[in-house]
Amino acid sequence: MSPTYPLLFALGTLAGLGWLLLMDPQRRSKGARLDPDAASLLRLDAGLAALATGLAGARLGYVAAHAAYFADHIGEAFILSAGGLSWVGGALGALMGVTALAAFRRSSAWALADALAIPAAMLAAASWTGCLIDGCGFGRPLPAAVTSPFASDFFDSRMPRWPTQLLGALACFSLALGLLALEPRGVRPGVLACLTLTGLGLTALALSFTRGDPLPLWGGVRLDAIGAALIAALGLGGTVLRLRSSSA
Description:
This protein has a two-stranded antiparallel ribbon. Helices cover 65% and strands 2% of the residues. The chain has ten helices and two strands, in the order H-H-H-H-H-H-H-H-H-E-E-H.
């Protein structure tokens, strides 16, 4: 694996953890960014819990998706440096980690999940950028007459492809900006988290139809498309429930 993707993933993770510690919207408005309080430390704990369980879930999801291969290479399932993470498994694992921490600390799982919304979008944008540079998650070939700048694959080919990675990075960056604008408005707890799941799921679902990298199929449909649809449905359902509860 090229070092670029892991590097950008690590930088995105560090940026997200720093955001959790220092960038609370209420404290930000008071100029207290560099004075972490107990709530900031709790958000940081939530970020670390989500990172640990998210990485475990991401690897487990990838291994499950490629079960036929790992059945004969079980030892490789535990080698993260070899590459192979499922963002769907990572998202589900992160949610489990945040929920478990909230129960342990007797805090609101919705509020902690909301705190992770912008860092999650930032990490997704960094991951797509890493794929753009390293050539993973590449797009389908386009007709030779079509020009497709900023598209790459791990074959180092010169054929034009869908700029899938670039579109993914731009979409996730736009999602982060939208969440940043919405965060200070005091929306119902849980809405930001659910909107993030919806945005990431719909983005991945749309881009799955442009991807050309190999992935197992289920019923003739790419597994990443199925997983993205499930995440988007989970986010949409959660958004509706939280908005209804605010009007009840």
